């Protein structure tokens, strides 16, 4: 806004003062990251159980899994930024190991990629022989619409090192994707993205979040309030080969 008004002044567009120049906004406070300790998990679990009970009473029937997940996602967490323990991460990744997106979850949990960065990863930016991946694109959401673009900040445009097990997972994923390409034939979309649907189209970010919630339920995290943004370091302190 300030920039636009300054241009208007220079172009003599009927204004001689830029009010935006004297507007001072307070510095945004960064939320403090907290670890999901046993105590925090227990407190969150009690809140979830209370909300589930209220929802069931209001409906007069047992909740479907989809309804339970909606309630699960609505319960406030101790901080906007929560972090899994290594044990939580190990359990989740072990459960996800056979899923077609297991390599995606490894990249988020162990290499620190944001959801949009993982979904936007391209094969041309991945060098499995060197064990590196370039994070140069992301897919985010504008409302519901997926939007492709550069990473969030200049520092986010980076090259990351891949551990040996993640390289192995990505090789298996590429082999599976090649088989899907062969099965799809002319219906395949050669998008170039590492993670796609069964006909080659890039994943919608919300697809990943929705599946994450389902996986978290399967491993018993419905009592813990974990979300995909929680799978950040210190998860990376897991020993190599442990997952």
What does this structure look like?
This is Tyr recombinase domain-containing protein. It comes from [Actinomadura] parvosata subsp. kistnae. With 243 residues, this protein is mainly α. The chain has a domain at 89-220: hpI Integrase, Chain A. The chain is 42% helix and 10% strand. The protein contains eight helices and seven strands. The strands form three sheets. Strands 3-4-7 form a three-stranded antiparallel β-sheet, with no helix packed on it. A two-stranded parallel ribbon has the order 1-2. It has a two-stranded antiparallel ribbon with strand order 5-6. A hairpin with a 2-residue loop joins strand 5 and strand 6 (145-149). The longest helix is centred in the N-terminal third of the chain and has 22 residues, at 38-59. The radius of gyration is 22 Å and the shape is globular. It starts with a helix and ends in a 25-residue tail after the last helix. Residues 234-243 have low confidence and may be disordered.
